[in-house]
Amino acid sequence: MSNWEDRLALYDKLIATIPDLERKGKGVPYTSANGHMFSQLNKEGEIGIRLPKEEFDAFMTKYDATPFTAYGATMKGYVTLPEALLKDVKKAKPYLKIAYDFVLSMKPK
Q1: At what angle do helices 89-104 and 4-15 cross, to 10 degrees?
Q2: Model confidence over 57-88: pLDDT tens digits?
Q3: Helix or strand or coil: residue 78?
């Protein structure tokens, strides 16, 4: 699954699992709440999700994941969803929900 449009479809499917979320951005699809971005699809077709520190560390260990990069820069607090989660939206949904709740707990921008 290397086609960017296929990844966009998976990203949209993941976003649709949480009511009231909507994808934003045309060239760089993303989600945000309270003025804080918490997920993104980069040009390479990788999906990154922003997690709180404890969840970030646990996720990195559990999935042997890598930090998420966009435009050549590593995005602080973002993990790259591994293939196993991309293919199973039910397993990926809790992480998107954690990311959503995390930014909702932040002071609005």
Answers
A1: 60
A2: 999 999 999 999 999 999 999 999 998 898 89
A3: strand
